[in-house]
Amino acid sequence: MIPTPDGETLSAFYIRAPQTRKRKNVTMLMFHGNAGNIGHRIPIARRFINIVGCSVLMLEYRGYGLSTGSPDEKGLMIDAQTGFDYLRKRAETRDNDIVIYGQSLGGAVSIQLVAKNQNDKRLVGLVLENTFLSMRKLIPSVIPPARYLTYLCHQVWASDTYLPSITEVPILFMSGLLDEIVPPSHMRRLFEICQSPTKIWKPLPGGDHNSSVVEIGYFEAVAEFVQNLDTKHG
């Protein structure tokens, strides 16, 4: 369990890459979507270790799984920063490069976290999968009758505001073209407004919102992205 500055405790799994892996000195900080918990995503983390070659820290937001508290945007961002700071301070990982990975809601969390910390030289890459422009712009697609009530949504998650401010960190965009929850146009628009000098678009033709990860070439695309990052460990 990892304590937060505001008194919550977060469940987390750290899975160490074997010393034989070529990216053993890179740690991926994973942020999951709204559904499920980190336990459901352990097989994904193990694939990252086996194919990408990095270690993985999976963090559970407050109010999810075994973590304490109740989730809201402010609290989740405290959790994300806590996870990032944990990697920077932990003896085993403080000298590692860090890649942030976020799927769906986790993508919104990741974008804000990277925007805030992009000047940290240990932060070398961001991977986004099936995330949205903002919660208010997503609601009309998910619940069309609620399109006139979006102004009442207090969880804003304005990724389209934060993303253009990221100018120091390479970004990989992984988009399931059959996403039935977040319209693929959201990912395409995020890619278009991205100001990072290194941005890569990876379409996943058969991928829907939660199964894009099983598309052929998914993990290989992440591995190639990480392999080409400018890390101090080569």
TrEMBL record:
GO cellular component: membrane
Domain Serine aminopeptidase S33 stretches: 27-147
Species whose genome carries this gene: Sclerotinia nivalis
GO MF: palmitoyl-(protein) hydrolase activity
One protein family per Pfam: Hydrolase_4
Protein name: Serine aminopeptidase S33 domain-containing protein
